[in-house]
Every structure is written in C-alpha cells, then in structure tokens.
Request: fold
Amino acid sequence: MKFYEGKGKKRKSRAWLTVIAAVLMMGAMSLTAWAGEWQKQEDGAWKYEQDGEYLTGWQYIDGVWYYMDTETAEWVSRPALTQESACYLVENAVNKTGWYDDEDLYGILHYKVDEANKSKIVVSIIMETAPDEWTTTLNTFDINRRTNVAQSQQTKLKLNLYE
Reply:
C-alpha cells in the first residue's frame, strides 16, 4: 500500500511539473522577440530597424557588412573607401567567394590594414591561432582606390568591392 501511495505521489508531482513546464513554455513563447528588418522609406532609401530603433554605422546583417549613415541611418550602398571600410568590404567580397568558410580549418579571421596611401590600401586576412594571437596571414589584398578592386598578392585574383 505504501508503495502505491509513493507511486501515486510521483504521478501527481510529474503531472504538476508538466503543467508548470507547459505554462512556462507558453509564457516564453509569448514574449515578443524583435527581429531586425529592412524598411524602405518613402524617398526610396533603405533603413534597418532592430528592437524598435534604426541601426547606424557598420552592421553585420545576415552574414554581410552594411554601412548605415550615422546621421540618417540610411543604407549607403557604396561607402567611401577608407581604411575602416576597406576591411569590411574585403571581408564581404571574400565571403562571397566562399574562401575560408571552414571555421574548423581556419578559425577566427581578422582583417587589418597594413598600409594606406593615396592610390592603394593593403588589407591582410590573418587567422587567430590562440586568443589574441595572430600568426598566420592567409591572404593580402592591394586595393586600388581608383578602381575599387582588391587584388590578391598571393593568387592575383581580383575582387570588386562594390559588387
């Protein structure tokens, strides 16, 4: 008889736990999750809204870097080619090619400016081999500021930064 009561108590406890879990899951599902979304403005400009606010500056959205004007929050399809933008634009162009997609093989990649002058910007792709330790340069690109083309020093392949 005691065994049966114990089993019965376990069943009641499990039933209550199931009810409580279901209520908690329903509550969690009813919370509003603000996902970002592109919004076309009346003047034709595009802005990206997330959590009720328009994003500005460089933003990583769905695997692509976008530049949003810091004053208007409008997407700038061809941001000025600066040392800062060069790294984002090279990363976008390299990602489109599929190079270095295997994280197990390549790990975390960093893009850095090695040199910049009036005619070109040199950007290297460096692999992080340990926390804050970058030892392997995977590729280096010479970016022609006039043509906006990044040419690999290793392979001589060319990437248009604004395509």
